[in-house]
Design goal:
With about 80 residues, the chain is of the alpha+beta class. Helix content is about 25%, strand content about 35%. Strands 1-2-3 form a 3-stranded antiparallel beta sheet, with helices on one face. Strands 4-5 form a two-stranded antiparallel ribbon.
Length: about 80
């Protein structure tokens, strides 16, 4: 079944996209919110369910759980 494209908005990203990505086994899912200056990181666990592993606001470093070398400085991201 082909998924229907819909524009992005916060509730769509937090529910619909999350479920689609989980269904297809996307191992890591980042939500970047430039209005609130937040980054949320979801990681697929062994039960094929997402766990919210990181929430950063305004400052700090977000590091990927899958790619050891990949990290983002929140201040740089939103400056």
């Amino acid at each position: 079944m082909k998924e229907k494209y819909t524009p992005s908005n916060q509730s769509h990203d937090l529910v619909t996209k999350l479920n689609i990505y989980m269904k297809y086994g996307v191992k890591e899912y980042w939500i970047v919110n430039p209005i609130l200056n937040t980054v949320m990181l979801y990681t697929l666990n062994q039960d094929k369910m997402y766990e919210q592993s990181i929430v950063k606001t305004e400052t700090g470093i977000v590091k990927s759980k899958l790619f050891e070398e990949f990290e983002v400085d929140i201040e740089d991201l939103f400056s």
